[in-house]
Amino acid sequence: MQSTPSVQAGVFVPVQGRVVDTRTGLGGITGPLTPDTWYPFQILGAGGVPTTGVDAVLVSLTVVNSTGASAAQVVPNTGRQRETTVLFSGTGDTVSNSAIVAVGTDGKLALIASTSQQFMVDVQGYFTAGDTPAPGGFVSVPTSRVIDTRDGTGYPAGLWTGTGVKSLTLKGKGGVPDTATAVFANITVVSTDTTADPILETLPGGGFDAGGGAGTSVNFRRNETTAVAAVLNLNSAGVVDIKHYAYAVGVHVIVDIQGYFDGQVSNSAFTTVESRLYDSRLTSSPIPAYGRIEVQIAGGRRPARCVDESCRCRLECDPAELGRGRVPAGLACG
To answer: pLDDT tens digits, the chain, 334 residues: what are they?
Structure first.
């Protein structure tokens, strides 16, 4: 780990840059990859990431026009492991997922895939290293599987069927301490249902019972294994609630922790909030091909909550813009 004592540890610094593109050989890797072979690549000093003072990087891993089912992982080069997976894909897919990965002691990350594919790795930012933890700063941990309903790891084994809320205790697992207020995790859903796309919603423990709304909505693919990265906010007991909707066949759920946010205070580097900022369905205005939208983030407010009686879900909308808070007719919930 690189260390800069004058800088607080765990502070996020946004940068953007492509560090690997196996189609062109960028990053020293020319694809398609050989299956089950490690490919190290430089991350310190690449894609806007500095050469020192970096603990972990936030990256997006993309498989390009997948030729078949594949599972891929990006890890510290000096901490290679195959126990967890960042990205799953099927034939014809060009899909991405994000991961926060600790930087290897050699300044490199490593990429591996189960089948021969082309990949891109884009940097979205990095977390600082230092001797003093920042309040609410991010702390990377070796990626570990804390929940797996296939074998009963961390939660009773069995498919999640019907509609319900599962309470998962994450403190004390995978290196998450009592002071953690949120974790960054990769959520994998294993679906064999050909009729419905699985949807999970998350809130801190007790949030659904308290009428906290839909929280964070995470969407997956039917009849596939899909992984999505998300920040899971915890209550004071270290519990996150995950709500699942009616599935006749049921799904298995896997949670891999990549790090946590620690000790929030008033001047915290990270503050947990959950709110939907944009939904094109609410204005019946699909984004056109190659179109661009602007979404207000800084200074934004949590919009008023409204409910469409014909839908099973609760949505966020702005009454001033949507005609007294009514959701447009025919809206598909999700």
So the answer is: 555 445 789 999 999 999 999 999 999 999 999 999 999 999 999 999 999 999 999 999 999 999 999 999 999 999 998 878 899 999 999 999 999 999 989 999 999 999 999 999 999 999 999 888 888 899 999 899 999 999 999 999 999 999 999 999 999 999 999 989 999 999 999 999 998 899 999 999 999 988 877 678 889 999 999 999 999 999 999 999 999 987 789 999 999 999 999 865 545 566 666 666 777 777 767 888 878 878 777 765 444 333 333 333 333 444 333 333 333 334 344 4
Residue with tokens 């030729």: 67
Residues 16 and 121 in one domain: yes
Is residue 61 in a domain?
A: yes
Q: Which residue has the tokens 């009454």?
A: 319
Pairing of strands 108-113, 95-102: unpaired
Final residue in a domain of this structure, among 212, 229, 262: 262
Residue 37: give the domain boundaries. 8-133
Is 312 contained in some domain?
yes
Residues 127 and 162 in one domain: no
Report yes or no on 220 lying in a domain: yes
In a domain, 269, yes or no: no
